Input
Amino acid sequence: MTREDLNRRRDRIIALLLQAGEMSAGALSARLGVSVQTIRTDLRALDRAALVQRRNGAVHLRQQSENIAYLPRESISRVEKQRIALAVKNLVRDGARVALGTGTTVEHCARLLATRKNLCVATNSIHAVMALQNAPGAVVELAGGTVRLRDLDLLGSASTAFFARYRMDHAIFSCGGLSATGEVLDYNSDELLTRRAIAGCAKEKILVVDSAKFGRDLPCQIHHVWEYDVVVFGADPGPYILEKCARFGCRVVHADMGCTP
Output
């Protein structure tokens, strides 16, 4: 069993719990074709990472008032995020001016964008800066202000003012959640305002969304998904959202199969 296989199975556990709300270890075992003992090992690891909660023989996702810590998030939907990052790389040419937001999906994008030449990048993510360390000819500007040590990023008024100074070709950013009716959601107003500033500084606004974000019920809303220029999905978001995106001229990229017609 490779680490990639392990991560993929745990991603599937998260996805099944998102759909079902609550399942037993036996039900997960039957769906995933592995032993109950293996599932219980997975659930213990996900519980330690504060992703799931076990109670009375059943397991469900933890309800979050704020996002979970960065390293546990990085392990969720890892293969899916890598596909998203490859799709994003194909949207960005050498020499482009790019604003990068925060989060693990954007960090994956930064790693692949590091193969592009002569990028000009503005970001509020220290993780993105490190991912771009060896990018040939890159110029990277980092927002100022107080560092959120848990995530190694910068939010608040200083970060918002930082992005207002730039005119970029692309803004690449994620979100905390996506509702079934297309609302783009976040955990708090600082996250929302900073993402709005990132989106506002670029000609093309690219939202990246992995399936772990689908259906999350979060308190802060910023736009609808079809208000962006491009949305890169790691999985099918459903016919309602796809129809709305087509109606409003939002280009949809499915990370595992290319662009929609």
